[in-house]
Design a protein that fits this description.
With 155 residues, the protein is of the alpha+beta class. 41% of the residues lie in helices and 26% in strands.
Length: 155
Amino acid sequence: MPGFIGREQHSVDEKGRLLIPARFRRRFASQTNESGDSPQSRVQVIYVFKADDGSLELYEPSVWNQKEEQLLKLSDFNPDERLLTTLIYARLDQTELDRSGRIALSREMLDHAGITKDAVIIGANAKMVVWEPLRLERLLSDNAGRFAPLASRYI
């Protein structure tokens, strides 16, 4: 549904705020209009998740709600399912898109991603992925030869 596609680099300000690219913000606005609310009347919540690869994943509410529905099906009485739920929620935060199109990232989130000044935001269809630029370039160069084999295996 969201259709976030593209890659942009922005700076994180001294308060830890990151500008969400305008083309991604327009996706939020179009979803808001489809729901019947005016963009001004609805708070734009974004879920921030610390991924194992050192990036941050940003989810808009409708996508995160689908994941949450799956989590709600897990049992508190099954140790593995309870552990998974704890691990996920320990890595999750929630922020709001301000009027200038920025989100405030906590120090914990910024430290996890290694972001001090600049960040690359990649639209990955149902989510946005935030990377420290050098960390992303290292990942891409270290795995450049793996694209074709992975694509032929999974796509």
